[in-house]
Amino acid sequence: MSADAVAYARENSARFLEELKDLLRIPSVSTLPEHKRDVEAAAQWVADELRRIGMKHVEVIHGDGHPLVYADWLHAEGKPTVLCYAHYDVQPPDPLDEWVSPPFEPTERNGNLYARGAVDDKGQLYIEVKALESLLKSHGGKLPLNVRVLFEGEEEVGGEQIAKFVREHPERLEADFALVCDTELFAPELPTLCVGLRGMIYTELEVRGAKSDLHSGVYGGAAPNPFVALAQIIAGLKDRDGKILIPGFYDDVQVPSADELKAWRSLPFDEEEYRKSEMGAPELVGEKDYSVLERTWARPTLDVHGIAGGFTGAGAKTVIPAKATAKISMRLVPHMTPETAFRQYREYVEKIRPAGVTVGVRLIHSGEPIVVGTDNPYIGAATRALKTVWGKDTVFIRSGGSIPIVGDFEKHLKIPSVMMGFGLPDDGLHAPNEKFHIANFHRGIESVIRFFEEAGSQ
Ligand code: BES
Ligand code: MN
Ligand code: MN
Known about the structure:
Strand content: 15-25%
CATH superfamily of the largest domain: Zn peptidases
Number of strands: 18
Mean pLDDT: 97
Bound molecules: ligand BES, manganese (II) ion
Low-confidence stretches: none
Radius of gyration: 23 Å
Shape: globular
Largest sheet: 9 strands, mixed
Distance between the termini: 15 Å
CATH class of the largest domain: Alpha Beta
């Protein structure tokens, strides 16, 4: 059966790619209110496609935020059920002037497809859809296992819709395992399953001084400056060796097992290559006692994303601004919890607040860290499928990124997730010139076809 489906996917590969370009042309940027209609359009586009390929009960589910897309096909009696997850929203495309071709005009160059969302995550969402189409169309409208599909449009903003749906309607999502296509290969040509993700808390810190902006000559020397205070607070959060200074922050950090650490040491990782080619930074930073993979996969971190307020125009303006804000996030690892981390952070910020200002800390969104179980038959099915398509044994990695719903799948649906992703380390997620290696799009489709076949014959 999967041989027919793979043949179908190969015969239709050019069309699949053209369709993906259509989806990529819809600027479904979930964080920007002016794109709300585009996010809706992308949901409808995906729903139409699911209907067209023969999925049942296709529904665009509306709530407070951006919609969910649900579909199912549940006629493989006695077979397991997979819950297919991906997201159709994308990050904002800025800085626009750094794109070689416009972010929402998908363009092929050197075997890659360039567009915002190409790999994160529309290309990978479409891998799931085209694997389902290939199986349905090459086998008289039947699938080798039961399938539910749940796609979201607020992953990139940590939106609540999907978590709420999972909490409130576990019966509509009853499944044996989830397939999550939203991660990366560890290296080109190396089949990879991701088994751990960091969690996060994303916050906004607001510092206020005087009741309004002040002349910096008339009042400077006596007036509190919120920017200086903000800089002092930020400098107090983390030392120069990358250690977070929030009391108790590391208390619940779980050390990876000796086996896991050993496996990470045998991965093909060249630190200098990573620094120079992938990152392009003068030096790597962080906790010296931990390897780079440990630092990014198994240690918490704290980063500042932006500082706003005051005068940033051309020229000069002598002002002491009344307020300054910063977006600050922390990545969490097992067994930290967003609640404890946020409380510790809030209390510490208040404690190190300089004289003359007030501070406010707001939680924008949060997600739990997760390490998924590998002791289930679906991980075995996945590695067999990947071996068939890629001709190599699978490596198991963690990732420093976050996909908040994976924790909820485990907690509320009690199912493991198979995180099978096909991005490359240099695909430029969230950055200008995001791309998807086109060969990986097609091999991804074949991998999911084979995986469903394997999982269905358990
Ligand atoms: N697909 C990424 C997460 C990811 C990237 C996992 C690379 C594994 C490898 C996802 O779309 C993402 O960017 N998530 C956000 C989370 C969020 C709550 C805003 C992230 O990690 O910043
Ligand atoms: Mn993603
Ligand atoms: Mn993302």
